[in-house]
Amino acid sequence: MSLSSLFLFASVYLAAVATPGPGIAALVARVLAHGLKGVAPFIAGYVVGDLVWMGFAATGLSVIANKFGALFIVLKYAGAAYLVYVAWGLARTPASTDIGNAPVDVDTGWRAFFGSLSLTLGNPKVIVFFLTILPLVLDIGSLPLMSFLEVVVTGAFVLSGTLCAYALAADRARGWMRSSGAMMYVRRTMAGVMAGVAVTVVTR
């Protein structure tokens, strides 16, 4: 695969993933409320979810995916339910005057992974990109195996790097908030954001 084609894909994909949407909102809200605990598997779920949709686009299964709309409606509601669950946890988390030792009730490990995976698989923004926008940029279905793997690796690098940047920025912002009152305000605000994102996912 030519470097120009790979660069074009990376540029378009970066613009898509860096644009705030349900996934970015959920990640930032999580980090602002709880820090970086369990954020690695949470980001991994996003990456795997995008790779699943990339596989759909590459194998021509996008037509089948469109026909099985009910399945993706279920996934969409599952992702929204996860956001509501996280929002409820944020709203109920007590504040602490010591952020570093604040009580943390947040999904980690496989729970974090599957939570973000379900959100990604049902995220309208992700679906629109891989089933409608990506084919206009790259004929991914006709790529040789090695070229497809190059796209996969590039996509995983772009997405994980972008999400890590958002997470680190949110964690830096969190570090500026030292009072328990500020943290309580942040957690409740982020709970509202998560609930709003859930409504957005369901209604799109």
Brief descriptors of the model:
globular, mainly alpha, single chain, 204 residues, 9 helices
Give a written overview of the molecule.
- This protein has helices at 3-18, 22-34, 39-59, 62-67, 69-92, 109-121, 124-137, 145-175, 180-203.
- It is mainly α.
- The chain has one domain.
- Helix 1 (3-18) packs parallel to helix 8 (145-175), helix 2 runs antiparallel to helix 3 and helix 3 packs antiparallel against helix 8 (145-175).
- The model is unreliable at 95-104 (pLDDT under 50).
Strand content: under 5%
Percent helix: over 70%
Give the number of helices: 9
Rg from alpha-carbon coordinates: 18 Å
Number of strands: 0
Distance between the termini: 35 Å
Q: Which descriptor suits the 3D outline?
A: globular
Let me know the average pLDDT.
75
Low-confidence runs: 95-104
From the helix content, strand content and strand pairing, which structural class follows? mainly alpha
Main β-sheet, in a few words?
none
How many domain units?
1
**Topology as H/E string?**
HHHHHHHHH
Brief summary of the model shown:
The chain has 204 residues and is mainly α.
How does the SSE layout of this entry go?
Blueprint: H1 3-18, H2 22-34, H3 39-59, H4 62-67, H5 69-92, H6 109-121, H7 124-137, H8 145-175, H9 180-203
Helix pairs in contact: 1-8, 2-3, 2-8, 2-9, 3-6, 3-7, 3-8, 5-6, 5-9
